[in-house]
Design brief:
In chain A, 23% of the residues lie in helices and 28% in strands. Chain A has helices spanning 7-18, 40-49, 108-119, and strands at residues 3-4, 22-25, 32-35, 57-65, 70-77, 83-91, 97-99, 122-124. In chain A, strands 1, 2, 3, 4, 5 and 6 form a 6-stranded mixed sheet that branches. Chain A has a two-stranded parallel sheet with strand order 7-8. Chain D has a domain at 45-125: 2-Layer Sandwich (Alpha-Beta Plaits), CATH 3.30.70.3270. Chain D is built from 4 helices and 5 strands; from the N terminus they run H-E-H-E-E-H-E-H-E. Classes of the chains: A alpha/beta (151), B mainly alpha (351), C alpha+beta (367), D alpha+beta (147).
Amino acid sequence: MDKIINREALVGELNKKFGQCAEIFEDNTNQSIKVKPDKLVDIMLELRDNPNYDFKVLMNLNSVDYPENFTVVYHLNSLTHLHKLTVKVELDKADPQVPSITSVWKAANVQEREAYDLMGIVFTGHPNLKRILLVDEFVGHPLRKDFKLQA
Amino acid sequence: MEKSFFNTIADALRNWLMNGLGFSDTAAQLTATAIWTLVVILFILMNLIVLVWLERKFSAFFQQRRGPNRLGPAGFLQFPVDIVKVLGKEDIIPANADKTVFKIASTCLFITTILAWAVIPLGDGVILADLNIGLFYFLAIGSTATVSLMMGGFSSNNKYSLIGGMRTVAQMISYEIPMIFSLLGVVMMVGSLRLSDVVAAQQNMWFIVPQAIAFLVYFVATVAETNRGPFDLAEGEQELVAGYFTEYSGIRYAIWMIAEYGNLVAVSTIASIMFLGGWNAPFGLTFIPGFVWLLLKIYFMIFLFMWVKWTYPRIRIDHLMHFGWKFLIPVSLANILVTGIGIYVYRLIIG
Amino acid sequence: MLKTQELTLNLGPHHPSTHGVFRCVLNLEGEYIQKAVNHLGYLHRGIEKLAESRTYTQFIPYNGRLDYVAGMLNEWTYVHAVEKLMGITEEIPERAQYIRVILGELQRLASHAIYIASMALDVAGATAWFYGFRDRDEILDLLEMVSGQRLMPNYMRIGGVAADLPEGFIEKCQALIDEFPNRIAEQEGILIGNEIFQARVKNVGPISKEMALDYGLTGPNLRASGVDTDLRRDEPYGIYDRFDFKVPVGEKGDTFDRVLVRIEEMKESVKIVKKALRDIPEGPVMAKVPKVIKPPVGEVYSRIENAKGHLGFHIVSDGSTKPYRLRIYSPCFVNIGIFPEMAKGIHLMDAVVALASLDIVLGEIDR
Amino acid sequence: MYGQGLIKGLRITLKHFFEKKITQQYPEERPNLPERFKGSLTLNVPKCIACGLCSNACPNHVIKIESQKDENNKKKLTGYKVMLERCLFCGFCVEACPTKALEWTKEFELTKFYREDVNLDLFKGYVPSPDDDKPAKPENEDTAQAS
């Protein structure tokens, strides 16, 4: 099974360092934290570079269209400690904007473009935020729940 | 014996033209030459039919497949049928192509191939023009083939063709040199550029024995000269789709193929003549005519070409250049030096 | 006035060596690449959106359409994710676990055989290509025997596998697995040991350890760069903790290392299948799961070691019969992101080889 | 020594040159298909109880079932269509069938000249009248044959 990181300590240290930006997110996986979008890049850098966490790998970058908000989900993995962490950022339904973390992991580049393409989340500071899978003229973002499917 | 046989036919033809039809001497000579040219073209085409079939069969056998086997015995008639198909295809000329050059490029290559065949003997005395500079003529004509490949590459208005054409020029010019140098050793030993003299000098020993290195250099250089794998960079289908003939279709494409296979047969024939004793029969098996021996040797060479092509991956262009200039040319030059010393020592001993 | 200019070359989408409909715009200086830009999406089918209108069981066949040369592994990833979401990973019957390992490793062999084969074709070694596809075809025959299909098996089920192994499978599989080391040796003889091939692939497109982690490479590509990681060993799923196998790791991370790592991995896979065939117990192949799969509300991110890298499924369940959101982390999609970086400054011929060495499958990239 | 690999490669290809060839001569030599092969679909009509489970199991909704209630208030099949052009060949329908009426055949040459011909009409046209108490008989003998 996955190794569980001590989230209380992690959140405490993050909050101490960057000021009330992270909190524990309760779900069934027991490895999620929720952070505020404006401090995201700093937190990710800390998570990557601090040897206590050492999250060298961005496993997955996902975006979910919940009824109340858009959530961008970052799955992190550490090759040395073999523990995992899920970082969630909740975004406003009307104007989903989140800072890009391409400067932290280049792996985020294509995944953020995909999230922009299919979910319509704007990653500010992304070097090349264009549609990646769909054509440039495409209207709408298919993975949103309000996207009308045509047979 | 054989010489008389073919010469008798030629003489009979000339006599018949002059006496029977009342041609003048020059006219009879010209007509006989024209007929010979037709025979050569026919020979190339016949070879082509066999070669395309062989190439497909051999590649299939190397790959544990069966190859063509539907039309005719063992699929032998597949190629004639393909030719008919190709003739029926639309002749597509790309927009903005240099139309004139595009049209004549493939024919130019075919012409050089046929011209090269003028001095290649297919048996004792079976030759169109037994020039005293036969080998020189062959090499000189062979190097003009580069121009037509470049024409095809440049005129197609296609980036892949352009890169393919550029690669061809670089490659063929580089590999011309070791090819010529490798043949020089043989020429030095014979003391003549006439191909029939070269064959005559191999009565007792084939030149592959004293000139083994030259044979290897020649083999590698000709693989590059004929644009066959592992040196088929000009076509380079993995990155250049089909190289200089990407845009060709129908009969023009077929002419490229005919010329390429014609070149392949030509260089194989030269190899057989220069190194494998030409129409001399080995082990005293003289009851088989020399013409057949020569054909066997040619096809042995072609088998070698195909074997290599269907085993090796393609070499990279810079490695190709390094290999040509830094390895093959020094080796062939050293071979010339050793041959020269050898001849000098031999003369010193014999007196 | 003479002047020079950069040549813009469209590599693809219909090009022999882009392994599908991948398009790359190259800026060439001579034949050296100055800049490469990826263009994806020619095969986009919206499988993630499709999943939202299919039940959990009904989505299984679509996995074969992702990475169509390793369908069995994809299905395994998906059913493993759903099982994890439902919390029934421990209830899968022994026999089903062994069947999954056998078929998964066979599929990995098939996928790597294709990798070696297409690598050979991209350096114009057509004969080695045929040998690779011959080996792969024999594996596919086995998969067909089990599942009825060669590429899209639809054999894994949530809670086990669809049916027991057919009669005669064990013997046939044993025969093939005993023969397979010879096949690998043949590929090593005709391709890997060939000096021309080595000259073509050595020092081409090297990826350093840091760069590989930064760009999120996974699987054999990451291991070739010298990162010692394998999910089968580090986070054993299924019954992989019972198998003892080496994890081959490269040194330089160049194309040759990527090929070698896969060749070594094939040898290890053969060992795993051999042991699994020896140890496979009798018994049921399906756990007791409800007919209608209704996972509890929640989410799961589960990944397993696919042939191309870590294939991950992030499934968000709202307690209904259909996934609320299903995200496929596709290894090829992320791996291809490094190609523009790799291609910078190398020769056009090398770019084709470097692209092939990433082992991309467009069905998975574009989803 | 440099060149060893080259010679080894030549040896391997030469060995295969004289080996037995492995290509299947397809139209004459039929492939030996396994028992579970998923080719075309066949319906054993008398067994079918028109329950609709196959239609429900299908991810792409390619199966259309028409049925009528007979005098005993039992469902009777009046039409069974498979839009094979959208079929994934996943086999969920065959697995779902409670009476094993729907089965795979080993027929794999499914290409047709016209697109409409691809779709299967496994059962059609037979509308049982109230006074007809004989079991439903397939009209299209060759496609609906019980295997």
